[in-house]
């Protein structure tokens, strides 16, 4: 690109002005850099917070339920696997099946729950387990209310009895390996490996409820539900509304807060730049008056000041953009304990926004500059 003499003159004038007033320009540059830092950092957090918060919310439990359709008591696990395969694999954190039945122990009725202990810690990380999860046959875990009622401890042996689905009776001695506390219905259940329960019930590969923990927004979950519903006639998916609605509400409010903070910082950046440039205009009144006296047009004077603002915006935006990456990483590491995903296309956008904000901030000082009367200024008035 060829630069003509007029453009070269403007560039030299702009650079000369910036260098001669470097102390004042440094203040404006710092303001622009801080604004760009906050802008990129906050916008990056807004983009990545759904992923970060989604993982944090998964500590409160699953957000999707799979249940049998048409009031059927159970569903086939092969059909469950087909339904789960319709979900994005990289977003699924855990899939936990549950099977319920009634048993007796010491003449008292209890609910026994068969589950996959490897998965239950992924979909229900809030479970507080004293002891260990059952790993071997004839091992169980009991809820804290049952343990208190029956005065059971880790290592206690209990005999459970019941009836299989084939109407044959069973009676087995079990060892307690852990006591679970959730503050919910689980405190009144006995937990056993799903495979072991299936052997007692003489029925395989069946589940009554399957909990799925997946990193997704409420809108995405509804799309997944529609997909599963259209592809499966035996499984009915449901949102766990209290989890998904709470997550959506918190994310919405947090994003609004971050955008508000960003807006406030940009306004303060504009004020900082406008104040600095206004001071520069006042200092250069004689210079502006002299230029106008020897024939400079208002347009050329305006171009000069706007060019200074543009240079400030680009330099400050560039510095702030890279500082914003560090800022976002520090916030994410300290708040969420994990690194953030950087959207690198936001860097040029941040620089462009910084330049636009700076140029807008220069409009009032430019107006004052073009209003300078050469005759009054040169007379010292």
List the helices and strands in order. Answer: HHEEHEEHEEHEEEHEEHEHHHHHH
Q: Biggest sheet, open or closed, and with what strands and sense?
A: 10 strands, mixed
Spans of at least 5 consecutive residues with low confidence: none
End-to-end CA span: 44 Å
What is the domain total for the residues? Answer: 2
Summed up, the helix count is 13
Shape: rod-shaped
Query: DSSP strand (E) fraction?
Result: 15-25%
Rg calculated over all Cα atoms: 34 Å
The overall strand count is 12
Q: What helical percentage do the residues reach?
A: 55-70%
- Class inferred from helices and paired strands: alpha+beta
Mean pLDDT reading:
83
3D architecture notes:
- By secondary structure, the protein is an alpha+beta fold.
- It folds into two domains: 5-55 and 248-378, no CATH class; 62-239, no CATH class.
- The protein is built from 13 helices and twelve strands.
- The strands form two sheets. Strands 1, 3, 4, 5, 6, 7, 8, 9, 11 and 12 form a ten-stranded mixed β-sheet that branches.
- α8 runs parallel beside α12 and α10 (298-336) packs antiparallel against α12.
Features:
alpha+beta; 12 strands; two-stranded antiparallel sheet; 381 residues; 20% strand; rod-shaped; 2 domains; 57% helix; 10-stranded mixed β-sheet
Set down the secondary structure blueprint:
Layout: H1 5-20, H2 22-57, E1 64-68, E2 75-76, H3 77-85, E3 92-105, E4 108-115, H4 117-123, E5 128-131, E6 139-143, H5 144-150, E7 157-163, E8 169-181, E9 189-193, H6 194-201, E10 206-207, E11 209-214, H7 218-231, E12 235-239, H8 241-283, H9 285-293, H10 298-336, H11 346-361, H12 363-370, H13 374-378
Parallel strand pairs: 4-9, 6-8
Antiparallel strand pairs: 1-11, 1-12, 2-10, 3-4, 3-11, 5-8, 6-9, 7-8
Helix pairs in contact: 1-10, 2-8, 2-10, 2-11, 8-11, 8-12, 10-11, 10-12
